[in-house]
Structures are given as C-alpha cells and as structure tokens.
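User: Predict the complex with iron/sulfur cluster.
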Amino acid sequence: MICYEGTDINQCNNKAVDNQLTYALHGNCYVNLTNRCTLRCSFCPKFNKQWSIRGYHLRLSEEPTTNQVLESIGDVGQFQEIVFCGLGEPTLSLTSLLDIAEAVHGGARVRLNTDGLGNLVHGMDITPMLANRIDAISVSLNAQAESIYDRHCRPPQTGTYPAILDFVACAQEHIDDITLTAIDGLEGVDINACKEIADKLNVNFRTRSLNIVG
Ligand code: SF4
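Assistant: Here is the predicted structure with iron/sulfur cluster placed in the model:
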C-alpha cells in the first residue's frame, strides 16, 4: 500500500538502496513490510516497473522479521509517526504488523495505510487486533463505485469494494482516526462523490495526486 504524500515518482530514481525495510520522509518513518498485494492497481509504481520512492528501493528479496524492522526503525522517539506503507499491503503480514505496532506504540503515532481488504483476505474481523496498536488508519477507497474501482485496482474477486466499506465500519469501533483516500486524475473517479462516501461514514477524506507518491 503505497502512500501518496508529496513525491513525484518521476524524481525518485536516485540513490537506490536495495531491500529498504524502513525509510524516513516528512519526519515520519515508513515501514516497508511486504511486497505482496491483494490488488494489482494499474497506477501502482511496482506494476509499472518502478520500485524506487525518493531514492529508496522498496523491492524486498524476502520479508523482514519483526526484529529486523525494529532495528531498522531505531529510536522511535525521533519520528512523528511510524507508518506502515511501502510497496505492498501491510495487513497481508498481519503478525509482523501487530508485533511491530505493539512495540512502537506510545513512542510515536502509529498509522496504517491499507487497501481496507484485511477482513476479506483473512476471513475474519482483524480490526479488534488493531486497537491499542494503531492510532490512525488511511484506507484507499480509490473510487466512488465498484465498477470504477475494479477497473483501476483490478481485484482478484468480485465483492471487494463493499468489503472496504465493511472494514471501515468495523475499524470505527476501535480506531478514532480514519481517513479515506482517492486519487485525483484517474479516469472516471469523482473526487467529490468519494468525499461524500467518507462524509456519510463520518470519517476523514484526503485527495491524493496521480504519480505523486512517497
Ligand atoms: S494496493 Fe495497489 S497501489 Fe498499493 S501497493 Fe498494492 S497494487 Fe500498489
């Protein structure tokens, strides 16, 4: 689950370092937990042969252990936020996600950037496990309707889009700070309609920009 927080991916090819487990941006520490994804988003850098974000090479030769990530983070207190992000979906590495979040929680704000499909993939409600480990969740809604979502995010099965909305409803029971996001510039995506969905769910909304990542 990549974040789109202010970096032009076309400027991100310098200083590549292999196997980057964590990377610092904007005063935050981003955790690159896995390269596995539920989706195959057409706009995803990695499906366009782009693995570097701000000079950090996020292709993993193998998934890191909890200790390797904690060692890579170092002093948690130096960061505003620890953000589970990277070029993959963090909830697919659920055990590591929970263990790392538990270890760093309280030292810095902890945010999960997710596709919102954790409950669907794991076949259970994982959101109670996020309580007291994750302070904020950013969920990629990406579209105002299932047909448009499917066109851009290319899920492996039908029914994925409603599963995101269910995940948000479940997460609201445990996490106060939830933000839905959508990317401005994708064909057919109506940003105002996406924001209306967020408003109806009583969660925050943030617009991301196509090709601006990091
Ligand atoms: S969820 Fe989509 S955009 Fe995010 S890493 Fe996976 S394929 Fe890429």
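Residues 1-2, 37, 39-41, 44, 46, 87-89, 115 surround iron/sulfur cluster (CB under 6 Å).
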